[in-house]
Amino acid sequence: MANFAERLDLALTKRGFTGAQVASTLTEAGIPITRAYVSQLRTGKQTNPTLQVLRALASCLQVSVGWLVGDDYLESGTVEELQVRAATLGRSVSGLSESSLAVLHGVVELARRAEGLSDEPAPATGIPDAAAPLSDPQCRALGKRLHALRKAARLSVEQVETALGKGAAAIPAIEEGRIAPAPITAERLLTVYGVTAPPVRDYVMSLARGERETAWYDAHSVPVWLAAAYALEQRATVIRTYHNQFVPPLLMADDYARASIAAAGPAILGQRTVDEALALVLARQEAMADQSGTVVWAIVDESVLARSIAGPHVQLRQLDLLLDHAKRPNVSLHVVPMEEPAYVPRTGPFTIWRFAEEFEADIACAHGIESDELVTEADAVESYHQAFTKLSVTTTTREETVEVLNSHRERLSRSLGK
Q1: For this protein, what is any one GO molecular function term (predicted)?
Q2: I need a surface site. Which of 119, 209, 222, 227 has the fewest CB within 10 A?
Q3: Residue 340: which residues within 8 A CB-CB, separation 6 or more?
Q4: Are strands 331-336 and 295-301 parallel, antiparallel or unpaired?
């Protein structure tokens, strides 16, 4: 990991932190590391920090992960995860022979020349200024999120201040969006509030670190767990989804979506009314329409096509829309037959997201009765992958899907006398 130890040492010195202070701060934020480990990272004796530790160190020292791992050459504004990819290459060469390392060094030199870069990375001669303050919309969105999480944890302002230490953070001002907490303070608040799910923590911290502008799902009316799921969906390059009750929301017609929300209840999306919940579904679809590179691989039970939740006219329009979707190059739609299905998983609907970054693991989402569960544990995600794979080999092909949709459409048309 080129220059990481040198950059870490420089950042610690310039920001006035000792290794013990950083270890204590990160541990309080829910990322336990020791003073000895910080010292080993600082001296280069340890070179394999996890992405979580890298992000926490960057947050504490108010630098980007890209700068911390020694990358001066990526354009400003590049997504943080892309900056880390260069660092992950350093880990992958561990254990290679000297001859293999020499070959790789030659390839890197050729690549750098092709990109118009110098032969060697520049030494870490300076540290960037601390992160720019958040914009007013970012402050307000972050404040509302932290306020909602504190309320959900049933903690008073006084209890939070006691947990952090008196004077550590002005909780009312943060929640009102008047000031932005330091990223490491936001990490500590999430830990105090019992937020342990990595996707939820990453969603809130993306605001705290100012990594992105506010989005439609940052609205206070969208529950934080749902906003985290929507944020993952926006970044996914492949979306695998299985539904056995309704058409997948991304493929719903407007009136069908309204009927499905009325049948399940708007509270499933954390909303009070059907109209509010419908607005979220339509916003998801609009956002996905702008992501033409995202592949949606959807599997539905055939009973979904036969179930009329709001009359045959609504169902007919939904079938027409599914026929349109089935012909799109970035949509792969398949049906589990009602008669003699080869495999039916013992689960409700679920989704699996895959991302462009090689180091970022897939995340699964189990769509529950009252809320969704974001699944990150590798073995659990693999179980969902296996279920989806078993479904995939026993469902209709793309061509057969069109035949099944047309068959149900003809049946409904005859019942309507069309």
Answers
A1: DNA binding
A2: 119
A3: none
A4: parallel
Report the alpha-carbon distance of residue 333 to residue 359 in Å, rounded: 28
**Residue in 236, 230, 232 with CA at minimum distance from that of residue 249:** 230
| Rounded Cα distance, 211 and 58, in Å | 12
* Local confidence band at 291 (pLDDT 50, 70, 90 cut-offs): confident
pLDDT value of position 75: 35
pTM here is 0.71
Identify whether the C-beta of residue 174 lies closer than 8 Å to the C-beta of residue 143.
yes
Q: Contact at 8 Å (CB) between 212 and 206? A: yes
Token couple for 310: 């709001």
pLDDT at residue 96 in the model: 56
Residue 174: CB atoms within 10 A of its CB come to: 22
Please tell me the distance from the alpha carbon of residue 104 to that of residue 92, in angstroms, as a whole number. 11
CB contact at 8 A, 248 and 332? no
Q: Which domains does the chain have, with CATH numbers?
A: 4-114 (1.10.260.40), 136-214 (1.10.260), 224-416 (3.30.870)
